[in-house]
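REQUEST FORM: STRUCTURE PREDICTION
Request ID: SP-0412
Submitted by: Lab K.M.
Chain count: 1
Length (residues): 106
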Amino acid sequence: MNILKIQKLRITLKAYESGILDNSCKQIVAAINFDGSKFSGPVPLPTRRRIYCVLRSPHVNKDAREHFEIRTHKRIIDLYKPTEGAIENLCNLDLMAGVDVEIKGL
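STATUS: Completed
RESULT:
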C-alpha cells in the first residue's frame, strides 16, 4: 500500500476500561499533532454492554442467579492525508496493555 495514495487512515480503539482508552487516545493525538497532520476525533462510539446470567449452583436453587457485565468502549480517530512522519510516529507508539488498535486505510 503506497502511503501517498491513502486519503484517510481510520484508527479504531477498543478497551474494557474507559480510562486506559482515553489515555491511549491522548497519546495518539499527541503523536499526530507533533507532525502537524489534520485529524478528527477521538469520536466516542456507543458502549457495548454484554450481560451474562449464571446459576449460582447448577443442580439446586434454580432461582438463585448472578449477573455479570462486560462493557466494551470504542473510539475512532480519522487521519486525513497522512504523511510519512505521522505514520512513523504512530508506529513508534507504546500503548497500554488492554487496548485493541485497528488501523485501516480508506
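NOTES: Residues 3-105 form a domain with the Alpha-Beta Plaits fold (CATH 3.30.70.600).
Reviewed by: T.R.
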